[in-house]
Design a protein that fits this description.
Elements lengths: L1 H25 L2 H10 L6 H7 L4 H14 L2 E6 L2 E6 L1 H14 L1
Antiparallel strand pairs: 1-2
Helix pairs in contact: 1-5, 3-4
């Protein structure tokens, strides 16, 4: 029985860490703006750059962080990479947050 409780506690800690990481990622205002833009359509770094007053390298940095976490999907079309929201990951994060908040 103690082993089961230990495993459950470890799983809760892992889920809590995932929620904390998600919140730290989306707490950055530039990332929130990027997510807002991608809510409507897929966009490239150049497309996003036209809407935000940020250097392209900074936009790419934010996109990489969100893509590495799984919030975004990237599809290459020739030389251009288009980014879209990963709705299932966002849904999973929302459900996890609902359990802890």
């Amino acid at each position: 029985m103690a082993l089961k409780a230990c495993c459950q506690l470890r799983q809760k800690k892992e889920k809590m860490a995932l929620v904390a990481e998600f919140l730290s990622i989306v707490a950055e205002p530039n990332r929130l703006n990027i997510l807002r833009l991608l809510r409507r359509q897929e966009l490239s770094v150049s497309d996003i750059w036209q809407f935000l007053d940020l250097p392209q390298s900074l936009i790419s940095h934010h996109l990489r962080i969100m893509r590495d976490f799984g919030l975004l999907s990237a599809t290459k079309h020739g030389k251009q990479v288009l980014y879209t929201l990963n709705a299932s990951k966002l849904k999973d994060c929302k459900a996890l947050m609902a359990k802890f908040i």
